[in-house]
Write a structure and sequence with these properties.
It is a single chain. By secondary structure, the chain is of the alpha+beta class. The chain folds into three domains: 235 residues, no CATH class; 40 residues, no CATH class; 139 residues, no CATH class. It contains twelve helices and 20 strands. Strands 12, 15, 16, 17, 18, 19 and 20 form a seven-stranded mixed β-sheet that branches. A hairpin with a 2-residue loop joins strand 13 and strand 14. Helix 4 runs parallel beside helix 7, helix 6 runs antiparallel to helix 7 and helix 6 packs across helix 9.
Length: 449
Amino acid sequence: MAGITIYEFCALVSQDSGATESEELREIPPSVFDWLEVQALAASDKGTHAWLRLTQKRGQRAIQVASFVGVIRAPNGYQIEVLPKVGKFTEGGDVQARQLLIEMLRCLGVFRHIQTDSAKLAATRMPLLEVFIEAFLVCVEQIVKRGLRSDYSALQDNMSALRGKLQMAAHLRHNLCRRDRFFAEFDDFSPDRAENRLLHAALRQVLSWTGSQTNQRLARELCFVFADVPISELPSVDLLRVRLDRGMAHYSDALAWARLILQHESPLTGTGRNRSPSLLFPMEAVFEAFVAKHLERQLSPPFRLKQHVKTFSLVRHLEQNWFRLKPDFLVKASGSNCLVLDAKWKLLDIKKKSTGTGKYGLSQADFYQLYAYGQSYLDGHGDIVLVYPKTETFRRALPVFEFPKSNGLYLWVLPFCLHERVLMLPPSGTCERLDNLFRCDVSPSFDPT
């Protein structure tokens, strides 16, 4: 299967543009470039959050992939695998970046069922989409081993023997001159239920996507098992009919995959008739979920982590609250707010001077945002934290930032180690409040997922 692997914010140009390829500029077939250009324009017209941007590179029209990761699959089958940008600065390159992404995706609810060890092994030998397909097929295989669940459904038919309840009006209409027939309604116990129809439809879909012989073979075997189950013609309707009641809990993981496969919910990356079977995820949300999952275990008792608190607003107008203040994380204890944190998926560089235009790559807007959080949630006194991914150019906490006009409000910029899954704190004794909040005995190898 044709395709390329790139990193976030890489620019794409058409192969007939004559541009020279580099790490930041890659060529794709003209037909794929035209299709992506249409998607970028459509997203721009709708005013939605753009996963593609139109730009120019070296005098050529180019398309830049925004801060989304995953797989873009064009209608002709061409795949563009988008990996986290931190992979550019690691020794493992694509393989390590792919494994890291799988680990981070597990912190999103719909991917909690990815088996880390097997997925990481698969990531060393196959593209990300094939890893997703393999995970889905394994989930369906587990259902097949336990047996497909059947259910009673009401059917009507004109039969040679009476079964169930005779439908008199329909019987007279169809069999006025046929005494050997009975038009009746009856209950049929069969595997033709919404859950199985959805899985069958998803199996047929991934069979058309996969280029892996192993995945193709398993998908065909599973489709054979579902041969007596109709394919869901209206997945959106069948999804509303899903009932994971008693005896159906083992269907939940496979149905989570089927929802993604059939509805392309992560997000929709195609428009019109050519909807793309792409799986893309906003890296900001992935990083935030990853930090939340592992930061909570780093807190000392009795401190607890709350996400997306929206207690306060920036202003009131005509007795209404405007502009909700929603920090990513709020640490509380005994009903009191102790610490505000916000996660930012951005690569900092401590080599950039702290004065002038560099400022480590920090954003002034982020400082305004955290200052507003501190004033509202901490009454202008305490510590607020900006969390960025740890890289070779940002390995330790920056010196503290002070707000001169505040009542003792301090801002810390701290790295979060993606591999050890811990927040890197300032040196012990630098900030006693942070020392009290966080444990120092957290094992980096511990994985609560």
